[in-house]
Design brief:
Length: 255
């Protein structure tokens, strides 16, 4: 466990954190533990987390969306391919209720130009909600489930000059390669990427280069990563700066 970092000076921004419904999971205790990692990634940097899952009533969702200063979309099950106009060819374990929750959360945050951070499924969801598509299965990136063995790792190639590279302290002109965990079987290829986003990192696969991180080309903070930086035991420490930067962006000059 990483030591807690001192939060930036300023008020505590309210950040909606979308989560899986732990009680519906095959392993509810493990699911709750994974959910807690996302919440802690916000709170240890001075944010006030508003956990929200698909079991939340509409009144709670509406209040959370109206009061939030930012949105964190987290990892989980596959997105229904119908969301991006495709049939099921490799997707499994879809959760349409969560898709609907996160689509509404994304729309509310986008309407108010709030910061958004996506992690794993969150990267895929952001891409879909912005008009992109997904490659429904790639070999070699799933590995063993979290909590059932050592984390699978692979190289991540940062794109030089991107905001993500600067946040991670890797602003050298030649780019940088980091070793990150890998818990996904779906991916965003360059042909899948929504027009609003630019690639910020790549990794190799049998299907070609995967976009393992992207960011908005203009406008408010929009960053997404395919790895799981909340799992600090298998993540380069530099990713703590991503959470810190996101929480600070949620403070905003006018929020």
């Amino acid at each position: 466990m990483l030591p807690r970092m001192a939060p930036a000076v300023g008020r505590s921004p309210r950040i909606v954190v979308t989560l899986a419904v732990a009680a519906r999971d095959e392993h509810p205790a493990l699911a709750a533990r994974k959910n807690a990692l996302y919440v802690d990634s916000v709170t240890r940097h001075g944010g006030t987390a508003i956990p929200l899952d698909a079991a939340a009533p509409e009144s709670l969702r509406a209040g959370a969306f109206a009061s939030m200063d930012g949105l964190l979309i987290t990892g989980g099950s596959d997105i229904d391919p119908a969301r991006y106009g495709r049939t099921v060819v490799g997707s499994s374990g879809m959760d349409p209720e969560r898709d609907a929750l996160e689509a509404a959360a994304y729309a509310a945050a986008d309407l108010r130009a709030l910061p958004i951070l996506g992690i794993c499924r969150g990267l895929q969801a952001m891409n879909v909600f912005a008009g992109g598509t997904l490659t429904q299965h790639v070999d070699g990136h799933g590995g063993v489930p979290y909590g059932q063995g050592e984390a699978p790792m692979h190289p991540l190639r940062l794109v030089p000059g991107t905001m993500l590279a600067r946040i991670l302290g890797q602003a050298n002109p030649g780019g940088a390669v980091l070793s990150v965990n890998s818990y996904h079987h779906q991916a965003v290829l360059p042909s899948n990427l929504a027009p609003a986003f630019l690639p910020a990192a790549y990794s190799s696969s049998d299907a070609g280069d995967l976009i393992e991180a992207f960011e908005a080309s203009t406008g408010p903070f929009r960053v997404a990563v395919q790895c799981h930086p909340e799992r600090t035991e298998s993540t380069p420490r530099a990713f703590e700066r991503l959470f810190a930067f996101f929480v600070d962006a949620c403070r905003g000059p006018n929020r």
